[in-house]
């Protein structure tokens, strides 16, 4: 079946949007890290920038994979959300950061485990 003829479920589309936002945010953090590089911490700053940039790129690729209903995208997305919930727990003393991180992580997981999302991603492997 051609990719364009398969209807993408709404929960999967919303997941792709949220993951895309996360990926873009990581890329922005990478750019900010590059702009902040200086002094005797150049290696650390560049390492952080490379990590955030690569991770952000991987998340954007996973978001595209979700929009194309590719089963491989499920693993990186779910792992990222679990990590994000853990980070939210670690920064729970800063509610303006912790709450959005936790909510986005939980909502994305809930969207990803909807039967329609699971079925759409499993069709890729069939």
Structural summary, described in words:
With 126 residues, the protein is mainly α. Helix content is 78%, strand content 0%. The protein has 5 helices and no strands. The N and C termini lie close together (11 Å).
Question: What's this, in brief?
Answer:
By secondary structure, this protein is mainly alpha-helical. The chain has helices spanning 10-35, 42-67, 74-90, 95-112, 115-125.
How many beta strands in the DSSP annotation? 0
Whole-number average pLDDT? 92
Most strands sheet: none
| N-C termini distance | 11 Å
SSE blueprint:
Layout: H1 10-35, H2 42-67, H3 74-90, H4 95-112, H5 115-125
Helix pairs in contact: 1-2, 1-4, 2-3, 3-4
Tags for this model:
126 residues, single chain, mainly alpha
